[in-house]
Amino acid sequence: MKLRILNVLCGFALASTLAHAGPGWDVTSFSTAPQNAPKLVAAIDEWMAAGGSQFPGQVTLYANEADGDDPATHTIVATFPSVAANEAFSQKVQNDEKLTAQWAKLIGVFSANTTVVETTRGSFVRSWGDVDTGDSAWIHHFVTVSDPAGMVAAMDQWMNSATGKKAPGQLHLSSVVAGGMGSPSHIVSIGYANQAEMETWNDSLAGNAEFAAYIAKLQSMSEYHGANMAIRVKTWGNDPVAATASR
Question: Where are the alpha helices (DSSP H) in the chain?
């Protein structure tokens, strides 16, 4: 996915049909030179050990492995238990002189070493599988959905099918809250322990009737825009999504 610092994603009527108070995310994608990556990790380390330790969610830095002509090299994703909780933390940072100074130091490092490409905000609609912050290989599929409720039902049916129950990793459907003009309405994100697990699972689905039926259902209610692949670099904080996942 076009990696970004979880902070925005577009409000479509289609997405809003499933809008609800619950876990969400902000994404910031940016470009940087390879030699700058350690500086960015160190800066986040320092922030998350200080004022960032109070953030009521999780922050993850990803390296963009395959994303077409997107100039972004990395993405920061910040997940939070609710928009209200995220807003309360932001206000706390703004109103506390010490926290403001610590945040400014972090932003200073990023401003000097990166170029922001895109920002997006989204809301988790539903999550399935084993939510593990250690999963390192991610595929994000971008779609515009004509039947959001039908999409959830199809994914739920798949994950509870004989084949779907064997699926490794985790599956998430997110609605795009704000992401600029032309944004998709939804994003389907799949996380695996590593690329080898991803490859083995995908190979096993070749010729599988249940999987073919699942994909046909999704295609009947959505327009596909493409996919991105990202590799986790490091994660900080506590995951607000794990408790909401189901099979």
Answer: 13-16, 37-49, 83-95, 97-113, 148-159, 195-204, 209-220
